[in-house]
Amino acid sequence: MIERSPLGRPLAHLLLIVGILIVAFPIYYTFTASTQTIQTILRPPLPLTPGSEFANNYGEALFGGIGRIGGVGVGTLLFNTTVMALGVACGKIAISILSAFAIVFFRFPLRMVFFWLIFITLMLPVEVRILPTYKVMVDLGLIDTYAGLILPLIASATATLLFRQFFMTIPGELVEAARIDAAGPMRFFRDILLPLSKTNIAALFVILFIYGWTQYLWPLLVTNNNQMNTIVIALKKMVSFADADTPWHLVMVTAILAIVPPVLVVVLMQRWFVRGLVETEK
Amino acid sequence: MPRAVFPNRILPYALLAPQVAITLVFFYWPASQALYQSTLRQDPFGLKTRFVGLENFEAVLSDPSYLNAIETTLIFSLATAALAMALALLFASAAEKVIAGKGLYRTLMIWPYAVAPAVAGLLWLFMFNPTMGTFAYILRRSGIPWDPLLDGNQAMLLVIFAAAWKQISYNFLFFVAAMQSIPRSLIEAAAIDGARSTKRFWTIVFPLIAPTTFFLLVVNTVYAFFDTFGIIDAVTAGGPAKATETLVYKVYNDGFVNLDLGGSAAQSVILMAIVIALTAIQFRYVERKVHYG
């Protein structure tokens, strides 16, 4: 048994509550601001409790007749961001699981060459090669397309490595059993490998969805047309401290709308998310 | 005994094709372009391009504003990593002690992970900008001349807070997992020997979670180097007077705003070298591997 000082546990609770205040306060502050009139927002200090304009502000942002950013409504922005996040998550998982399958369960000439070809891309984020990648997008005519938003972000080895690591723990007897039963490789992939990988796929999905949703630099470069903006980019474009016309109440609403979907994904899929982040990263 | 495998000859190539194609087109092509561009220089009108060897690198590395960006990046990254890790460790060790509400605390703690860096920057700017921020108002009322839009040090503080705030959740989850993997018997043995809570933390827990701490240090540095572009652009745009211009911000600024293609490409190549070095350190000294993203 470990001795407990009488103050230890309450102190720990207190510390955690302070931590949660630090972590949650900026979001709460913005939410409060999103329920105030623009006049209240512009006259600090901001009240600490939500105001009365919730319905008005959110209604105006979501269904208001005139769009804010060059005529684009929040609905379009949310749609674009969702397409991008889902595209990045599903695309990366699909190509990675196939290539990991090939590398682990087959022996063929140049296998290690391909492995290293993919492996080298590990951790080299798109941020360090923006200009040349941008030029490639122009050459391929992918500016202002969903493919242009998604494809460069899935060119990385992380998911492949994860699946490879996991596949290597699958006993070879399973492969032998499948071969004795005359199951082909794709049958093995569909009926044995995919069901076994469910947890890994779910974990990766959450992480990659968040990754796709929160992108900034790349969508900023590859979209010129406001119709193709993601909500994060549109939000940044709305904010101008020099401009007296900035509709602050709508900025706050947009900020909350940019935060809520990924937070929901993380909180609702917490079990897989934590697992994917911590357990597989070891 | 070698692994049992499937005997197909063509199929594995077909399975690899999508990833290899995407990697070649969106990784190797641009990366080689960056290498090639970094040895070229365009005349001011973009009419002629000539080969200059390593001159771009010399120019970049002897440019005072690049050295300034290196310094800024180092200060920013180290401060962000230190702040985010220290707070996360504090909260994680508190989470180890509580029993009731553990799940709830964790749920509330992980939100900021899902907030985009640019949005995180804006949230902090809402609270601290001189026109309408409540905290800026409070600071000014208490006599502090707070204006991060004009004062470089204050701007730096603000981006560090925003960047560290976003990273607390990530570090918290890792520290909690690391502490849970410490055998109870070790802690109990120390307690029997009369070691108090603080002593146990520094002599047993802290050394045992050192691999996680080191891993997080690398990950946080990489995060502060590359993933914070959104924060910087949203909060300060590298200003005031380049006080918060990090290396990644400079690559963007020189390439897309100032259109110095050779210089920007040379900077990209230097950055790639830094990432490769950091990855190598991570692989060499920590047995933990993957960074998602």
TrEMBL record, chain A:
It is a multi-pass membrane protein. The keyword Cell inner membrane applies. GO terms for biological process: transmembrane transport. PROSITE patterns: ABC_TM1 (PS50928). It comes from the Bacteria. Residues 78-269 form the ABC transmembrane type-1 domain. Keywords: Cell inner membrane, Cell membrane, Membrane, Transmembrane, Transmembrane helix, Transport. This is sn-glycerol-3-phosphate transport system permease protein UgpE. Belongs to the binding-protein-dependent transport system permease family. Gene3D superfamilies: MetI-like. The chain crosses the membrane at residues 12-31, 83-106, 113-131, 143-163, 192-213, 248-269. Its main location: membrane. GO terms for cellular component: plasma membrane. NCBIfam families: PRK10973.1. PANTHER family: ABC TRANSPORTER PERMEASE PROTEIN MG189-RELATED-RELATED (PTHR43744), SN-GLYCEROL-3-PHOSPHATE TRANSPORT SYSTEM PERMEASE PROTEIN UGPE (PTHR43744:SF8). It holds the Pfam family BPD_transp_1. It comes from Consotaella salsifontis. The complex is composed of two ATP-binding proteins (UgpC), two transmembrane proteins (UgpA and UgpE) and a solute-binding protein (UgpB). Part of the ABC transporter complex UgpBAEC involved in sn-glycerol-3-phosphate (G3P) import. Probably responsible for the translocation of the substrate across the membrane. It is found in: Cell inner membrane; Cell membrane.
Automatic annotation (TrEMBL), chain B:
This is sn-glycerol-3-phosphate transport system permease protein UgpA. PANTHER family: BLL4140 PROTEIN, SN-GLYCEROL-3-PHOSPHATE TRANSPORT SYSTEM PERMEASE PROTEIN UGPA. It is a multi-pass membrane protein. GO terms for biological process: transmembrane transport. Its main location: membrane. The lineage of its organism: Bacteria, Pseudomonadati, Pseudomonadota, Alphaproteobacteria, Hyphomicrobiales. It comes from the Bacteria. CDD domains: TM_PBP2. Part of the ABC transporter complex UgpBAEC involved in sn-glycerol-3-phosphate (G3P) import. Probably responsible for the translocation of the substrate across the membrane. Residues 70-282 form the ABC transmembrane type-1 domain. The keyword NAD does not apply. Gene3D superfamilies: MetI-like. NCBIfam families: PRK10561.1. Keywords: Cell inner membrane, Cell membrane, Membrane, Transmembrane, Transmembrane helix, Transport. SUPFAM superfamilies: MetI-like. The keyword Translocase does not apply. It comes from Consotaella salsifontis. Belongs to the binding-protein-dependent transport system permease family. Signal peptide: none annotated. The complex is composed of two ATP-binding proteins (UgpC), two transmembrane proteins (UgpA and UgpE) and a solute-binding protein (UgpB). One of its GO terms (cellular component) is plasma membrane. It is found in: Cell inner membrane; Cell membrane. It holds the Pfam family BPD_transp_1.
